[in-house]
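# step 3/5: fold
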Amino acid sequence: MKNPPEGSVRPVQEARATLIAIDPHRKLDRDKLLAALAELPQERSEALAVLPWVLSQNGEGHATVTIRHPDGSLRLAASNDRRLEPGLEVPKDGIVGLAAEERRTVYVTDAFSHPRYRVLTAEAYPVELALPIFERDEVVAVLNVERATAYTPQELGALEVFAGGVSRQLTLVSHGLEARITAELYARVAEGTSLAEAASTALDVIVPAIGASSGVVMGEHRESMVRVADRGLEDLALRAHLDAGMPYPSGFAWGACLRGEPLFARDHHADPRGPGDLGGCVGPTVLALPVGRNGVNRFALCLHFEEGAHVSAADISLLRSVCQQLAAVFESAKAAALQGCLLDLYTRALESDTQELYQQVLDAAIRHVPGAEAGSLLVRRGEWDRFRYVAVDGFDMEALSETTFSEVDMREWYRAGDAGWDAGRPRVLRSSDVDLAAFSREAGGSEDPLRAGGLDRMRCTACLPVTYKGRVLAVLNLDNFTHEEAIASDSLRTLALFGPPVASLLAAAQHRDELVRASRTDPLTGLANRAGFLRLLERQHLRSAHSLEPYAVLVMDLTDFKQLNDTLGHAAGDAALTAVAQALESASRPGDALGRWGGDEFVALLPNATGEDALLVAKRLRRAVAAIEVGSRRLGIDIGAAWFPEDGLVPESLLLEADARMYASKRSGKGLARAG
C-alpha cells in the first residue's frame, strides 16, 4: 500500500479557497441511478470500482469509494477523479471514517465547519455525503460524494436506496460464494479421506474463490505448527521451513489458534506477530484464521494476498463460516484415520509380539490424540499384581524398567474418582492444578520418574484406565510439555475411542502370551519345557553370533531318580522334581534361564558366561541340589557344561557336547565333567 503524498490532506482554511462552483440546478437522475444496480459486476472489487463512474453518469461530479480493511484502516479503492491514486490512505478521523465507525449515513451541508472534515484533493466542496456499504452485516466500504449544492430529500433517498442495493447485492454474492465453496469442498473432499488430501482440496477451492495469491493449512504437531498442505507456495525453502514447524507460540498460525480469532497483517514483514515464518516469497498481506470447533483449534488457514488486494471484514466473516465447515471436514478425516489406525493395530497384532504391540499402541495414541507429545503405557503384570512400564515415548525406559505401581498408586495418579477409574473414563491434569512431578514421585515412591526425563517440564497430562470386563488392565498416559491447554476436550474424546479396542488388543495379547507360556512351560516345575528352552537358546545364540558375546549351556541329570520313584512313589518323585527346580532357581545368577528337558533332566542357559563362569555356576547348582532331602534320601545331580564359541558354533553342537560331558561325569562319579 502506498502512503498519501506529503501535504495531501490540507487544512480546512486552504480548502475554502479552492472551492469550485458547480451548477446549483443539477439534479440526480434517480431512475437511471437505480436501474444501474442491475448492471453492477458480481465480483465485489469490480462492483465497488465502478460506483464512482455510475454516479458520474447520473449527475454527480466528485465521488470516491473507500475500502475498510480488517485492521480498521481506510484505503481509497476508486474515484472518478483521476488525480486520486488507489491505495491512498484516507484519514479515519474524517467524515468517511465517521460513517464507517458508526455504521450510518453521514450528511454534512457545511463540511468546512464540520470538525471531522478532511480533504484529499485541490478541490473542496461544502456538501459531503458518506454512505456505508455493507456485506454480511459488515461495513466493507464507504461511498463518498461531494458537491456544491445541498441534496433534496428525494436525492438523498435515492442515494441511500442505491447504497442499500449495492449492499444487498454484495451480501447475496458473498452468501452464494460461501454456498459454492462449501458445496464444492464437500463434494471434492468426499473423494479422499486423509487429512492432507482434505486440506489440499480445501485450498484448491478457497484460494482462487477468495482472490488470494497462495494459502497454507498449518496443523498442530507436538510443540510446533507444521504445514499440512499448501497451494501456490512455489519456494521449496519456504515449504521446508514450514515443514520444520513454527515453535509454540510464534507465528500467525499459532496466534490465530490460541486467540480463537483471525489475525490480519497488511505487511507481515513488519508485523511482530509473524517473526519470519512466511519468508519473503508470499504476498505481503496475510490473513490467518483458526480452524476448530467448540473453542479448540488445532489447525489454521493462512492466506496470502498481493499488495493492494482488498481484504474486508466480510471476507473474514465468509472465511470464518467456511472454516467451521472445514473443521467438520478435518474431524471426519481424522476420525477415518483413527479407524484405519485401529484396524491396522488389530492386523499387526497378529504378527507382532506383545512388546512390539505395546509400543505400537502408544505410538498410535500419541500420533492421533490431539495435544499429545509424549506418553507411557503401564500394564498390570506379575504375581504381585503391580503396574509396570512396558512402553514410553519421551522418557527413559531403562530408568523406569524397575519402577512399579500398585493399584492404590494408580488410582491416586488418576485422581478422578473410583467410578471414573472403574468405567475407564479419561481425565486431564494441568500443572496449574497440581505439581505433576511431585505427584508422580509420591505415587511411585521413587525419584525414577523425574530422573527419566521430562516430568518436571510437563504442562498437562491425560490418563486413560484401560478396562476389560470390569478390571483395569493397563493405564495409558499422554503428556504435553508445551502449554497447559494443549490437551483439551477433543483430546479426551479421541482418547476415549482408544479404550475399548486397546483393551481387547491387550486382553487378547495377554491371553496369547498365557497360551504360549503354557505351551513352553513345564506344568510341574514351572520351568521352561524343551520347546521353550530351545526358543530361549536360539534367541541367545542370535545375539551372541552378532556380538560375539560368550554363553554357556548346562545339561543336568538327577542321580538315581528312578530308584527314588520306584521306592517312594511318583508323588514323592514329583515333589523331588519340584524341589530341584526351586533349588536351581535360587542358586542361578540373575538373567540365567532354566528348563526341564524331560524326565529327571534339566538344562540351563548362562548368558555372557565363559567356561570358568559356567563351572562355577555348575558347582553352586550341585550344592543346592545336594541339600535337598526327600524321604530321608539326599538328592544328587550330574552336570555337563559347554560354551560358545569354544565348544561349538551352533546350539545343537553345544547341547550334544554338554550332554556327553554329563554322561561322562555320571560314569566317573564326580558329578561334574570339565572340558577336555
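# step 4/5: annotate
The chain has four domains: 12-176, 190-336, 352-516, 530-673.
# step 5/5: archive (pending)
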